[in-house]
């Protein structure tokens, strides 16, 4: 098989050749765009799921949909211990530029840009020297008096109101997409929820679409109790058999190739339906095959290559971030679950490792912060990465 024509594309956040199994989320967002543009009430969205299920890819698709609908759209990736002002300012700058091409009042656009600039400049600490202040690339003077109080909750409400008003002027809306949302600081999470709540009450045409790990709803709820009603939650999981087959067959057939039934069985068993793994095994099987149709024998031959790539780029890069104490904890989880993707009691991990639970708390808390595990529910812990337990056992990690 010609490797140049290989259609499969495993990669972090890289759009697969066929966005299979996500019609429900895409259709739901289409309705949000239409309703908000017509002044109808609608909730912001939150997508949750494990690593490798395609949350980042789906965020990118939703952003593209918003832009095609004439909306202003900006996307950011939250980072642990980093404040929200700077990345949000850059995202909203992009969104305002999208709206500016449709707006016929340049002074109004400059006014909102000036308010955004004032908001962004508040990222510097009080008394910071000029050279220490971040200067956003906004070519208008800052406008004082709006979104620059220094209180992130007040400032977000005022800023979102101004940007949403600019969108309303041209009969459209604004979408702010936030990846790794669980990594926002508590104050920023609280402010974001408060701003979304305020704007939803006024039916302002601005929506937030967040994506994060399965415990993100708990993070939001701990910040603001009304967040359970503020967002529409959608759990993104692995593909079912029909969609996993389609994700393989449709791209292959566009390149005049196909998979036989036994190959599809083998690929589903290997990938578990997780989109990232579907792409990784599909790519390796294509490269290993001599001719079409690709067979189960080709998949078997290709599996070590796919697993070696996953071991380095998907599993290994995460494992390397763990300290020896954290690796011991991960290994204990893997042994207790026998490599299955399921939660385990934290007390069971302590018993298995023959340690006091309190002595393991630092390792567990650090793994939570690094995003390698999440708290499935109180007293339980699970891997954020599918098949991670299986990887640990297979590699003696």
TrEMBL record:
Transmembrane annotation, as ranges: none
One Pfam short name: AAA_16
Renumbered residue ranges of the record's region Disordered: 1-21
Top-level lineage group: Bacteria
UniProt entry tagged with the keyword Heme: yes
Gene3D superfamilies in UniProt: P-loop containing nucleotide triphosphate hydrolases (3.40.50.300)
InterPro entries (UniProt xref): AAA_16, Cyt_c-like_dom, P-loop_NTPase
Residues covered by the Cytochrome c domain: 168-319
Keyword RNA-binding: no
Annotated keywords: ATP-binding, Heme, Iron, Metal-binding, Nucleotide-binding
GO molecular function, one term: ATP binding
PANTHER family from the UniProt entry: ATPASE DOMAIN-CONTAINING PROTEIN, DNA-BINDING PROTEIN-RELATED
Protein name listed in UniProt: ATP-binding protein
Annotated source species: Pseudonocardia charpentierae
The organism's taxonomic lineage, starting at the top: Bacteria, Bacillati, Actinomycetota, Actinomycetes, Pseudonocardiales
């Amino acid at each position: 098989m010609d490797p140049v024509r290989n259609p499969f594309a495993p990669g972090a956040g890289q759009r697969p050749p066929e966005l299979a199994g996500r019609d429900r989320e895409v259709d739901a967002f289409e309705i949000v765009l239409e309703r908000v543009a017509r002044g109808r009430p609608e909730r912001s969205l939150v997508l949750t799921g494990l690593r490798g299920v395609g949350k980042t890819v789906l965020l990118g698709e939703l952003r593209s949909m918003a832009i095609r609908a004439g909306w202003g759209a900006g996307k950011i990736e939250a980072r642990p211990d980093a404040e929200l002002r700077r990345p949000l300012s850059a995202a909203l700058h992009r969104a305002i530029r999208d709206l500016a091409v449709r707006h016929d009042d340049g002074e109004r656009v400059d006014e909102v840009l000036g308010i955004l600039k004032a908001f962004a400049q508040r990222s510097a600490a009080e008394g910071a020297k000029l050279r220490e202040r971040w200067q956003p690339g906004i070519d208008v003077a800052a406008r004082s008096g709006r979104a620059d109080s220094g209180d992130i909750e007040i400032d977000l409400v005022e800023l979102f109101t101004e940007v949403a008003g600019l969108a309303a002027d041209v009969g459209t809306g604004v979408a702010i997409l936030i990846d790794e949302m669980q990594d926002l600081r508590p104050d920023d999470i609280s402010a974001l929820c408060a701003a979304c709540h305020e704007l939803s009450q006024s039916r302002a045409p601005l929506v937030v679409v967040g994506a994060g790990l399965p415990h993100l709803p708990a993070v939001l709820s701990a910040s603001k109790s009304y967040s359970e009603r503020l967002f529409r939650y959608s759990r993104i999981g692995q593909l079912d058999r029909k969609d996993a087959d389609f994700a393989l067959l449709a791209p292959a057939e566009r390149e005049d190739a196909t998979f036989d039934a036994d190959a599809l069985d083998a690929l589903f068993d290997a990938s578990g339906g997780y989109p990232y793994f579907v792409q990784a095994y599909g790519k390796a099987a294509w490269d290993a095959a001599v001719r079409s149709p690709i067979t189960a024998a080709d998949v078997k031959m290709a599996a070590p290559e796919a697993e070696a790539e996953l071991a380095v780029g998907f599993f290994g890069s995460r494992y390397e971030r763990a300290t020896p104490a954290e690796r011991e904890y991960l290994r204990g989880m893997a042994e207790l679950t026998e490599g299955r993707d399921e939660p385990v009691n934290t007390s069971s991990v302590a018993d298995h490792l023959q340690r006091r639970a309190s002595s393991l708390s630092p390792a567990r808390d650090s793994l939570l912060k690094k995003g390698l595990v999440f708290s499935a529910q109180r007293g339980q812990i699970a891997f954020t990465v599918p098949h991670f337990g299986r990887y640990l056992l297979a590699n003696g990690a």
